[in-house]
Amino acid sequence: QCALVCPTGALAVKDQTDCALDWFDDPAVTTVVQFAPAVRVTIGESIGARPGENLQGRIVAALRKLGADCVMDTRWSADVTIMEEGTELLERLLRQKEEGTLHGHPDTMFTSCCPGWINHIEKNCPDMIPHISSTRSPQAIFGALAKTWLPKTLGIPAERIRSISIMPCTAKKDEAARELLKHGGEQDVDLVLTVQEFAAMLDRRGIDLMSLEPAEFDSPFMSEGSGAAQLFATTGGVMEAALRTVSALAGGPDLGRIAFEPVRGLATFKEAEVETEAFGKLRIAVVHGMRAADEVIRMVREGRSPYHFVEVMACPGGCVGGGGTVRGIVWRSTLERRQNAVYSTDASMKLRTSHENEDVVRLYRDFLGEPGSPLAHELLHCEYRERERRSEKPDYRTIESAVELA
Ligand code: SF4
User: Which of 117, 167, 315 to mutate to test the pocket of ligand 1 (most atoms within 8 A of CB)?
Assistant: First the structure.
């Protein structure tokens, strides 16, 4: 059996558990907590459950017990991510169609929701920045809307809100601290806990997750997410979620009702084609681990990329293999169980596509206008900048190298 190691696990991690507990205990603070799609299927092993067991309802109950005021779902903002990123992709495709450059070697667009990948681009491959989607990650989108749309809708002063996220990821802490993701000097997401830190916090407060009755998220508003959003937890999931919406809008097959197998599983480099009425054949690729990502970067640099859209995740398996999910290594069999739990959760959901999420439709109708509007750009998009390299040769480990190490 081989071991898988998350490349971002080596980052220095700032534990803010004490600060989170202080906020939960403070009646003057309104705590708004989001947790990522991967969290519900990765926390199990830390607390004696089966690998991949979906503990969503018990996590909600535990957060209430800790004193959280609003418990909401990052899957909701993942659906918003798809609306913005999908709109960007459609605009790029339309421009290329008008220019006559859509087929052959198109202008490849990369996903942007993985901060491990974005760090790699900014530090090691800044020439790729124009190819990265400007849409913020689901965590960042939730944070921006928790400080703008949520206070307006619930009538809570924005200054009272402390936005906390629970993530499978150490790099999300770094993402939340980015200058561009702050308003008035305050971070949109005030504090990020990893799955491991959350499990330790429950332990400190004597909360046994497995003994709790599952609970529902607070008000469905900012909590109702689709099956497409659940797929964000695994490699290939952002692509599958995006294609469900883009294919529907571009006259392609109805991918919202089927499992799109070409992008599923743990192969490090997957590719597929989707035939659409509006743009003809779209070519896509899905990679995880920086070795595979660097292969696509080389293709783009040399003008050889046949892909319109490429999903990149830094960790082996995507967020289900994130560095915040477990200390040390994640076994491949565990990763497969986590991934299968993601697929079965999606399959069990009635709402499978982001554009059919009524709470997302409501967000645009009542607040943002439409996907890609000026307000959507101000709150839901960002810019990337060349950053100083930490070393000449980044030490990113991928599935292959981890297998060699094991
Ligand atoms: Fe974080 Fe997921 Fe990217 Fe890993 S794959 S760095 S867990 S966002």
Answer: 315
Tracing tokens 């554009």 back to the chain, one arrives at 355
What string of DSSP letters covers 226-265? -HHHHGGGSTTHHHHHHHHHHHHHTT---GGGS--GGG-S
Atom 8 of ligand 1 has which residue's CA nearest to it?
114
Measured over the CA atoms of residue 217, residue 222, residue 227 and residue 230, the dihedral's sign is negative
256 lines ligand 1 (CB under 6 A): no
CA 114 to chain centre: 6
Residues 348-391 have pLDDT tens digits of 999 999 999 999 999 999 999 999 999 999 999 999 999 887 65
**What is the pairing mode between strands 3-4 and 70-73?**
unpaired
For ligand 1, the distance from its centroid to the CA atom of residue 400, given in whole angstroms, is 18
Q: How confident is the model at residue 223 (pLDDT cuts 50, 70, 90)?
A: confident
Sort 147 into a burial class: Cβ within 10 Å, 0-12 / 13-18 / 19+. Answer: buried
Which of 14-18, 35-39, 210-214, 276-280 is predicted with the least confidence, judged by mean pLDDT? Answer: 14-18
Average pLDDT across the chain, whole number: 91
171 lines ligand 1 (CB under 6 A): yes
| Ligand 1 atom nearest to 313, measured from its CA | 5
Q: Which amino acid would we find at residue 117?
A: W
- Give the model confidence (pLDDT) of 64-108 as tens digits: 999 999 999 999 999 999 999 999 999 999 999 999 999 999 999
DSSP-derived letter for residue 381 is B
315 CB within 6 A, ligand 1: yes
Q: Report the C-alpha gap between 108 and 86 in whole angstroms.
A: 14
Give the atom of ligand 1 at the shortest distance from the alpha carbon of 116: 6
pLDDT (mean) for 170-195: 93
Smallest CA separation from ligand 1 atom 1, residue = 169
- Could you tell me if 318 and 235 are in contact, meaning their C-beta atoms sit under 8 angstroms apart? yes
User: Which atom of ligand 1 lies at the shortest distance from residue 8's CA?
Assistant: 6
Does 326 contact ligand 1 (Cβ within 6 A)? no
Asked if pLDDT for residue 327 goes beyond 50, the answer is: yes
Quote the CA–CA distance of 380 and 371 in Å, as a whole number: 10
The two tokens of residue 151 are 């206070």
Q: How confident is the model at residue 51 (pLDDT cuts 50, 70, 90)?
A: confident
Region 132-161 average pLDDT: 95
